[in-house]
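Researcher: Sequence of DDE endonuclease follows. Predict its structure.
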Amino acid sequence: MRYLCQDETRLGLKTETGRVITARGVKPIVSVQWPREAFWLYGVVEPLTGWNFCQEHPHLNSENFQKFLDALSRELVDDMAMMQMDQAGAHQALALSWPENIIPIFQPAHSPQLNPIERLWQFIKHQFKGESFSDLQQLRQRVQNELTQMSSELISSLTSYDFILEALFYEALLYASS
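Model: Prediction complete. Tokens:
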């Protein structure tokens, strides 16, 4: 049984901004663009191992979520997985057909801080701070490069919350003793 954490993030051509260090009295100069072109990155991570699976889709909706679930199910092959996720409408659509090897676990509403994959999204977006991309293809390429370069150890260190690891450890102990 595997424990996975799932979420989506929107990535677009709007420049990610943030604080930077400069000499006293010197303001940083960064070109900022505000276009509305974007895509969604659907993803899942396994905090214990750092394993991850991502797919790009043009919109956040139940149809694309179903495509993601089906692809994830094929990727898991014969493994069973509990998958933690938020209560987004796309995740709870009545039309969804849950694969037999994925068990959904919905976290409390309005609590993104409970989902470890949020830290992965934050880390990826931080890599683009101050950059402008000319088109979505350039951004897609950069996102793929970042994901490819990330080791499973880095992903595990970003997503392994102590309370999750302790819960999984105690569950494994209970399972082993029964």
